[in-house]
Amino acid sequence: MHLPVLYQEILTALQPRSGGRYIDCTLGAGGHAFGILESSCPDGQLLGLDVDPIALELAQQRLGDFGNRAILIRASYASLKNQLAIINWPKVDGILLDLGVSSMQLDEGKRGFSFMGDAPLDMRFDPQNPLSARDIVNDYSEQELADIIYRYGEEKRSRQIAQRIVRSRPINTTGELAHIIAGVAGGRRMKIHPATRTFQALRIAVNQELETLQKTLPQALDVLESGGRMAVISFHSLEDRIVKHFFRQESRDCICPPHTPICICGHHASIREMTRQPVKPQPSEIENNPRSRSARLRVAQKI
């Protein structure tokens, strides 16, 4: 089993200690959480959040030996402050957000995240989410589809792909969709599979990933103790851009428009950026886990 992406870098960034309280907002199978709990022995605590019941079950097994030091809740990280209120934690010492789809979810074919097999078009992190990728692919207008594929996938052929999808309906499986998208590319050789960007776009739209991130970052900053740290791992430019902008803005004393004669915003810096440039995986990690190659880590410390 691979270690989670940027595992050692996360422990270095968060500096878990005995008596500290930490949040893993994207618990997954509990790999990062294990490292945080192990490093904060004997009495550090961790709140783990995830909407995926399968991930929570795996994490419960993995973290069972830590007993009540690990509090695991099925919830979206967008409800971060509410979850802390429920367990009566006013502040925390460290927060981790490991964004995107996990290897576990990609490898479980029936979840429909990957175009490498043929599975139902699903892509939901939360099985209770009423919207699936199949709904978007079969029910949205051609214009709506093109907009999603371009905005969330940064796909230059978004209009052609949307047009081909609409003409090919109904589409029920990942294999069918990947074949349709590959047809738009024709015989051209590409560095990545021609369906990569469209599948990314559909997954982001289904799970409202960017909107959820934007809602969560201010909450995370608010609940951090002075000196506490927030670490965010992103896997594509859209996520990284949101995190970068938030960190840059919150690390400045003034956010007035350029050339404003005097400051009228009243904004004060609340964090210090620990990583002006994102941390990338080491070549050895990429060799052992090729999916880590696009990971980017940004870290900020509460002033």
Description:
The protein is α/β, with parallel strands linked by helices. The chain has 2 domains: 7-98 and 210-302, Rossmann fold (3-Layer(aba) Sandwich); 110-207, Putative methyltransferase TM0872, insert domain (DNA polymerase, domain 1). The protein has 13 helices and 7 strands. The protein has helices at residues 7-14, 31-39, 53-62, 80-86, 103-107, 133-139, 142-153, 158-168, 174-185, 196-207, 209-223, 237-250, 283-288; strands at 21-24, 45-50, 70-74, 92-98, 224-234, 271-273, 296-302. Strands 3-2-1-4-5-7-6 form a 7-stranded mixed sheet, with helices on both faces. α2 (31-39) links the parallel β1 (21-24) and β2 (45-50). α1 crosses α2 (31-39) and α7 (142-153) crosses α10. The longest helix has 15 residues, at 209-223. The radius of gyration is 20 Å and the shape is globular. The model has no long low-confidence stretch (mean pLDDT 94).
How are the strands of the biggest sheet laid out side by side?
3-2-1-4-5-7-6
Number of strands: 7
Distance between the termini: 37 Å
pLDDT below 50 for ≥5 consecutive residues: which ranges? none
Helix/strand/pairing class, anyone? alpha/beta
Report the β-strand fraction as a percent range: 5-15%
Topology as a string of helices (H) and strands (E):
HEHEHEHEHHHHHHHEHEHE
CATH superfamily of the largest domain, by name, is Vaccinia Virus protein VP39
Query: What is the 3D shape?
Result: globular
Radius of gyration: 20 Å
Could you tell me the mean pLDDT? 94
**Structural domains: how many:** 2
Q: Which CATH class of the largest domain applies here?
A: Alpha Beta
Architecture of the largest domain in CATH?
3-Layer(aba) Sandwich
Instruction: Please give the largest β-sheet.
Output: 7 strands, mixed
Enter the CATH topology name of the largest domain: Rossmann fold
Helix content class: 40-55%
Summed up, the helix count is: 13
